Amino acid sequence: MKKIWIGKNGINNKAVLISVTLRLIVVSILVFSVVYIFYPEKLFNFPLQHPLIWLLVLLLYPPLSVLPQEIVYRAFLFERYKYIFKTKRLMIIASIFMFAFMHIVFENIFVIVATLIGGYFFATTYSRTNSIRWVLFEHSLYGYVIFTFGLGEFFLLGMSRILLS
User: Fold this and answer.
1) 101 lies in some domain
2) What distance in Å separates the CA atoms of residue 3 and residue 51, rounded to the nearest whole number?
3) Domain that residue 24 falls in
4) CA-to-CA distance for 34 and 150, rounded, in angstroms?
5) Nearest partner of 39 among 110, 96, 97, 100, judged by Cα
6) I need a surface site. Which of 57, 97, 104, 135 has the fewest CB within 10 A?
7) What pLDDT, in 10s, does the model give residues 95-116?
8) Residue 1 domain flag
9) Does 4 reside within a domain?
10) What is the largest CA-CA distance in the chain?
């Protein structure tokens, strides 16, 4: 477990942090713009209307949602199927599509597109680092952006949607 948490020997953590931060800035600007233009009534709605639930989501999202996804769609998949998807590129592609496919349960094209993009980011970060720590960090940050800026309801199912409407 320690190996997949820490990752490859010789990881340039500063370079990974810079890469993750730059992508986060671009994604944040993009998500903010989409909400501002297409869903202005949703902008910051979750933290403003339900601040305690929003804080609870920020606290529980990484260990209960992100970590299991990253273990399955990065650590497990990259290790278990490395002999089937023999190149780094094929492994990244498989990870992207399997991750996005899992999200079809949300029945929303936006979620599929967002998870294709996020899946690319997470798979490339994992491929570069072999570290669950880095993809957990990155995935959590994007989730925070989505839930804070107003697109989180697209990623919720059933009772969660009812509670927040």
Assistant:
1) yes
2) 37
3) 10-164
4) 10
5) 110
6) 104
7) 999 999 999 988 889 999 999 9
8) no
9) no
10) 49
